Amino acid sequence: LEISSFVAALPKVELHVHIEGTLTPSLRWKLAHRNNVPLPYLTYEALLESYNVLYNHRKEVNGDNGAPTFLETYFAGTQVLCKEEDFYELGMEYLQKAKDMNVRYVEPFFDLQAYLPRGIPAATVLNGYMRAQREGAAKFGVQSNWIMCFIRDEPVEEGIAAYKAARPWAKMEGGKGLFHAVGLASNEYDRPPLLFETGYEMAQRDGLYVTMHCDVDQKDAADHVHEAIFSVCGGKGAQRIDHGLNAVDRPELIAGLKDRGIGLTLCPHAYHRRQKTEVLFPKIRKLWDEGVKFCINSDDPTYMHNIWVDGAMEKVYHYCEMDKSDMVKLARNSVEMSWADEKLKEELL
Ligand code: ES4
Ligand code: ZN
After folding, report:
1. Which of 141, 194, 197, 270 has an alpha carbon within 20 to 30 A of 229's alpha carbon?
2. Which residue ranges have their beta carbon within 6 Å of ligand 1?
3. Is residue 33 part of a domain?
4. What is the residue with the minimal CA distance to atom 10 of ligand 1?
5. Confidence of residue 55 (pLDDT cuts 50, 70, 90)
6. Domain range spanning residue 261?
């Protein structure tokens, strides 16, 4: 699906993109050599090819067929990131790409816990991303507020420890201002959102926002959405939900999202890898027609066939039969759902 000039020119905002999921094969190749990190691929072509596989294996459900799962592939990529400069370059490459797509403001996720076990200090990661945040704003005019994800299939205490280490870089009184929210990512099998309640409460006491992944068609997906709407954050619910598409099957979840004003950050191409066009896009259209607020995002573009946020929006434009004013409304939703400060929001609207 070719990106229309309309979608290309539309001023955009992206709220669901994992910075590690924007690592290009070329940067990965360069960093592997610079840092002497062995790659499981002998040639650049083999590395490129590894990004092209439709990763849809869930060992817990399908058994271990020997092929890496999506998340194993994604976390394998993080191995080449070692030095502050590496994190900076990853951030800058993405912000440059954002500018090239007319994306004005982004809230990228980062997985601090992917690096700490390798002995990389939190400061190395966070200073690298923070330099990209500042320089990306100055050089490309792309503002960003970042989101620290808890890795939900690791022990809760490790997530809390990572949060404590990251705290000086939070956007709070006396903080450095890199990240303004916490999220919840990685494998959600038997890892419901409420497990991380302590983490959300800490973050909220610090004045940060809270979002969490409830990925599509996972085991207990709708129950996870239910928890994210009604149970977490002391029963107030999350402030956004990442994915959450399974709400479409349950009227009480649709009502809960609307009553509580919780928006979904949908990533249509991520679902399109597993669901047929005629199954997937009517669900997105139904949420739209029901008045559930959502915005359109890429998730892990380099690991998902290089479909970036513009490509994701094009899919919705085309397959949900949206008109131009719908697309403008979608772009406005991402501004309204963002946690940019009020002045910046006004500029973006
Ligand atoms: C992710 Cl596709 C997906 N699911 C869960 N966690 C993630 N982190 C990055 N991509
Ligand atoms: Zn995601």
Report:
1. 270
2. 18, 21, 70, 74, 185-186, 213, 215, 270, 299-300
3. no
4. 300
5. low
6. 5-23+90-348
* Residue 335, domain CATH: 3.20.20.140
Which listed ligand is nearest to 17 at the C-alpha? 2
Flag whether the ipTM exceeds 0.85: yes
Q: Chain-wide mean pLDDT for the chain?
A: 96
pTM above 0.95, yes or no: yes
Euclidean distance between CA atoms 207 and 221, whole angstroms: 28
The two three-digit tokens of residue 194, written as one number: 């409420």
Nearest-CA residue for atom 6 of ligand 1: 186
Instruction: Answer for the pair 148, 182: CB distance below 8 angstroms, yes or no.
Output: yes
Residue 329 lies in a domain: yes
Structure tokens at 315: 């899919």
- CA 247 to ligand 1 center in whole angstroms: 19
